[in-house]
Amino acid sequence: MLNPQRSLSELPKMSAASQVERAVLEEEFNWLLKEEVHSVLKQLQDVLKQEASRRFSMPTPGLESQLRQENFILGSSTMDQVKGVLTLQGEALTQADINLKVAKSSQVLHFQFREDKQWKLQQIQDARNHVNQALQLLTSRDDTYHFQTGAEVNKLMDAVMLQLTRARNRLTTPASMTLPELATSGLMKMFTPPMPGDVMVNFYINLSKLCLTVYQLHVLPPNTTKNFKPAGSSVLHNPGAMFELNNNRFEVSHVHKVECVVPWLSDTLVFFTISLQLCQQLKDKISVFSSFWNYRPF
Amino acid sequence: MSGNNLVLPIVLWGRTAPTHCISSLLVMDDFSTIITGCHDGQICLWDMTPELEICPRAMLFGHTASITCLSKASACGDKQYMVSASESGEMCLWDVNDGRCIEFTKLACAHTGIQFYQFTIGTQREGRLLCNGHYPEILVVDATSLEVLYSLVSKILPDWISSMSIIRSHRTQEDTVVAVSVTGILKVWIITAEVSKMQDMDPVFEEESKPIYCQGCQSISFCTFTQSSLLVVCSKYWRVFDAGDYSLLCSVPSDTDQVWTGGEFIAADKVIIWTEDGCSYIYKLPASCLPASEHFRSDVGKTKEGSIPPLVYSIASRSDKQLLICPPVTRFFFGRREPFHKLLIQGDSSGRLSLWSIPESSPLQPPSIPAAPAAAELPASTTVSLQEAFDKLTPVSAGIIDQLSVLPGKEEPVKVTASVYIPSQGRLVCGREDGSIILVPATQTAIVQLLQGEHMLRRGWPPHRTLRGHRNKVTCVLYPYQISPRYDQRSLVSGGVDFSVIVWDIFTGEMKHIFCVHGGEITQLIIPPENCSTRVQHCVCSVASDHSVGLLSLRERKCIMLASRHLFPIQVIKWRPADDYLVVGCSDGSVYVWQMDTGALDRCVMGITAVEILNACDELAPATVDALSHSAVNLKQAMTRRSLAALKNMAQHKLQTLATNLLAADNADKGNLPKYSHNALVVQSMKTNLTDPDMHVLFFDVEAVIIQLLTEEAQRPNPMLVSPESLQKSQAGADKGGSFLANKIFKQVKETMKETIKEHLLDEDEEEEEEMRRREEKSKSLSLLEYNLTMDTAKLFMSCLHAWGLNQQLDGICLERLGMLRPHCPISFGLISRGGHMSLMLPTFKESLLYQLSLATGRKLTLSDIVGKGTYGVSRAVTTQHLLSVISLANTLMGMTNATFVGEHMKKAPARPPRPGGTPESPRRTPAVPPQPSCPALQAQIKQGWSQLAAMHCVMLPDLLGLDKYRPPLLEMLARRWQDRCLEVREAAQALLLAELRRIGQSGRKDTIDAWALYLPQYVDMVSSPGTTTESSPQAPPPPDAQPVETKAPEEEMDVTDDDITADGVGGHGGSSAILSPVVQTVLQMGFESSLVESLVQTKYLLSGQHYTSVSDLVSDVLQAEEEDRHTAPQSTEAEERQSSSSGNVRMQTPVRGKVKEPGPEELLRQLQEERTCKVCMDQLVSIVFIPCGHLVVCGDCAASLRHCPICRAIIRGSVRAFMS
């Protein structure tokens, strides 16, 4: 049936054969809808719940402090200008210590978060919310639910996959920001001692890594002959990128990026990939059958 | 195709209604329209009568992903706007009445809820949209520009907002926004007047943040009856809170297996709650929740779970429900005006809307058993699905090749599953469900479907060809030659669900080769870009549902590469020809880079790198993108072809600023745009969902039809045999064509134009002709009908547009003499608006139109009563487009010799005696037939027929139809075409505008001026300046609410408008203050020469002591003056002609007399230089004066190749060298 290379003369023979074949297929399809779909849904729930319960549980109001704190040391082996120690609690960075060695003066600047402040990593929150929405979709169809068509399963899988893809994308593609956006973000106001005007920091998640970027700036003199071209938005700006803020023109002179792997995030990404594949495989299985039901041969 | 072309779509929907899996619902305030959004991204408008009969009217296309929410976007009024948001972050503002897209934007994240909010400061009212979605803030967006103004931000535990509600307070200026976050925290923001005025991006922090422990909150709503309670519905329970201090008043859990998805107050003491599976329940609230009761707040602090309040009604979803593939959407709306309906509306995945009218009173129940288990069941008031509405139609909605597809013994025609239109041959290729492919002349088959005529009697008409080879459904068809001429023009490629790709010879119908390389059904066939290696250049790229991509060489007849084993469906294919890479983007965001030559997998990446690789491909070769998998994306692409410029703009400006652009597939809209712009007719197949059969949209480009008609007229063999009268006329026609083209070339491309324009034109066509001949020679074996494509297109188009049944005599002339045909039933037209957004009338529109018109006229109308003329009662924008098209085409045809559609059928039926007037229309196609001398009298009659037709549509329509059945054209749309680059369209627009201005009378004109006055430059000066006490200067400011929307209304050609207004603003200053009056200003805006207008105004003042009080008076005087000028001094008219014909930009070149501000020296220099450059090559200095016309406009080189003056088209009898010193 699936071999298109058979010649047309074989057709009558085939359609006779396919009568039996079709009966078998129908049975198999029913099995797929009744048994297989639920087992895949169960698997998916297990995978995601495991993930959700570990990391992505909804914070219950008032119980945030019970979340485990983790410390991450961000640094790189090749350069030691920047070193950061960050404390991650749930989706927020509760403490941060940043040491910055300024090249020219060999003076070490030290910043940390103010006591009353913490920085929420929007990426983790978004990923959590997407996963929870996916879980809600999955739990809405429990074992007792009887799927009647392949289209129904496909629709459900599409919705789940959309949420999962979004969740994963939020972790794998950090927001690209322009430098003025970065300079005016609340992050700059969180430090004690306050950040000097020529230093900017940014935190984000890229894949399974917690990243810290420090930009050192210098002010461009107003009558500079240099061709001023404001940089667009980017995840990581390069030295030489320029921007204008409050009528001052700045240029990025140094960029330091340090990162540290968050082990549970890499697990999470793996789980996302597994779940997406489970969904896709189920869809593929359905599609094999649906081409039999919907488009009967002439 | 640039946005300002006049393009009219006509839709052939077929019998199957498009899939419409409803994802969101909205009822407009006047309860006459229901709007539904679906998972595939379309929006459907349904008309509702006061008796709750519903009928789908139109479908709006433009979103690329599932619609997440809909909201109204204007306060009650005559302008009805609504806003839609999609999963991919797009937002669109639509006009509900005619389906025009007014504004659109795209953000990085998706909105899940939008609420309209109007605030008032003094007399100023402004609309705002509050949006929540996959982000932790509430964005406040301007309701007309869709710009984000500011945001409402949480300080404490910020998280996504799952639902929000606006509490309006009548006591203070402050309105409150109450929202619940996904973690169950209630947030309160206060919007004061200061906040609303704020324009910068300073965030507004919440006033209060209170955990209310509502996990999985679905909806929150405010009781408008008592103004003191809030209903929060969560999936497992619903709760009522005090709206003052947010204390819990009552909490009701759900049954075990029910999931609640929303609820609303329906009275002070009753709520309606609905579940995910579509059931709804009406509960009577306990006394502790009723502010009127003495027990109000008696339970605060001691909520008892489990006490279920009495159930008043239960509303089950349909018992006989079809299989639903996802949960239905339910909403409750109540009317604030007559009729005070309380409506529960449900939309489900089969495109079905069900309505329940909720009665005010409770059913009579024995009081002894409160909350009896069997609460009274409320029957549905109305229920209808899209398919049911389609099925009810008689005649059924036509599909493009239905007459060829109905197999004997079967009811339903075989569905068309894939199709492609070949414009060069005018043929449509339709792949069908049963595996056959049909080749058919597109206009002929459309005529059969839409129009009545003798063809109805013939079986199997029009002649067609069937290709059989696929064993099952055909999923995609591709004609490579159309996209790139490097391919053999014989080959047609098709893919099917039988996993095979077949190459056909389109002329012989022979099956050339079958490729069987994929392990799944073929989903897409694509062409590699130009600069690939030669081997790849002769390949087509096939994508299959087994996630594989193949490069199939048509020349070598083998698969040169198969890239398979992708884990996820393929979403996008891009190319890096320089590196010999094929880049495959999958739906999960991963990117695979394949080497085309070796077939080796170079890389597989994810995340930012993947996005960067995809983006890099775009930068290298912007025209190599193709998005697959999602049908809506394909749709969008299809529409991109219609307005490339706008979309490109959008892609470049909007998409680059995205903060977290998810994956690069989004900006796939940019590319792969074959040039269709010169085709009068394009047939585009569309589907709303991948599983749907194709529906077909015929796009008529009016300008292209006119060009083609004029071209053919110009090519006509020397009309010496024809009477002198028609000779003159035809000359005029040809001249017109020439000058028109001249404009085009002047304006658009400053390319060298070494020959006369007409010659240029002829040359081009000779080439084409030759090619045609070659093709015809090749295709000798092909037995398809040969016919004149241009005339056929015009015939189809005119027949569809004519307002039949208004003038019996004219109808007779149209049928008999002009050869037009009457439509079977009202035709579904469409309307293209900004950015490729499109509104298409559903075939069921005629039902609701019938209803409306019957209501308006007070008598029952039948379908045949509204054939043709009915469309003029649909909407003002539609009327404008149609009248412009019909008048400009009729005028064009009037100028042609022998412009009747009867003729060309003659040559196909030589047995019958030839009609006296019937010269074959296409001399180039049938060169053997000598042109027959046509009877001059008949020629005159034909011309008279066209002129009557034009006259009727131009001036008589309002009177004939009656105002209740006629929506007048929009003045602003006509005014915008006042300077259209196509002469015919321009003339039609001018005539129509004047007719319309005359029709609306003085008061109407005054209203119009009042409405637009605010936007006219220097208007304020006029008010304050003395001496202008004409009655047209408005004493009171015009109604403020109509203003902001007016400006934005029809912006199809925004590029033109803005420039025009500013240019006029500077140029329009006159010496006296009278020149500043709005009347004069309006006329100046129209593009008349200011000196002429000024002198007329002054003359009038001197003679009568009065100023002009109406625009039309002035305009008619100006026109008259121009006319006189033209007669007295032919020399000077040339200059004027030039000014008016080169549309707009000339105004920059000829300095307007009496400018208040002298242009700067650079400006002057530029002008001088411009004046002195050759108008043909735009390079060298002018140096030749033509005799006798005296124009000094070209350089010596260019003059040598000219026979007519490019400015005035006078024959050049001699030339003199001139030196400027």
Automatic annotation (TrEMBL), chain A:
**InterPro entries from the entry?**
RAVE2/Rogdi
Q: Give the family per the record.
A: Belongs to the rogdi family.
Question: What taxonomic classification does the UniProt entry list for its organism?
Answer: Eukaryota, Metazoa, Chordata, Craniata, Vertebrata
Q: What is this protein called?
A: Protein rogdi homolog
Extract the PANTHER family matched here: LEUCINE ZIPPER CONTAINING TRANSCRIPTION FACTOR LZF1, PROTEIN ROGDI HOMOLOG
Q: Which Pfam families match?
A: Rogdi_lz
- Which Gene Ontology cellular component annotation is one that this UniProt entry carries? synaptic vesicle
Q: Where in the cell is it found?
A: Cytoplasmic vesicle, Secretory vesicle, Synaptic vesicle
Automatic annotation (TrEMBL), chain B:
Where does the RING-type domain start and stop, copy by copy?
1174-1209
Any one Gene Ontology BP term: negative regulation of programmed cell death
Chain coiled-coil ranges: 750-782
Give the EC number: 2.3.2.27
Please report the residue spans annotated as repeat (WD).
60-104, 467-514, 563-604
Q: What's the domain of life for this entry? A: Eukaryota
| Catalysed transformations (reactions) | S-ubiquitinyl-[E2 ubiquitin-conjugating enzyme]-L-cysteine + [acceptor protein]-L-lysine = [E2 ubiquitin-conjugating enzyme]-L-cysteine + N(6)-ubiquitinyl-[acceptor protein]-L-lysine
Q: A single GO molecular function, which one?
A: ubiquitin protein ligase activity
Stretches for region Disordered: 906-935, 1025-1054, 1121-1161
Give a Gene Ontology cellular component term annotated to this protein. cytoplasm
Q: Keywords, A to Z?
A: Coiled coil, Cytoplasm, Metal-binding, Phosphoprotein, Repeat, Transferase, Ubl conjugation pathway, WD repeat, Zinc, Zinc-finger
Write down a Pfam family by its short name.
zf-C3HC4_3
Subcellular localization(s) per the UniProt record: Cytoplasm
Organism this protein belongs to: Solea senegalensis (Senegalese sole)
Keyword Metal-binding part of the UniProt annotation: yes
**Protein's recorded name:** RING-type E3 ubiquitin transferase
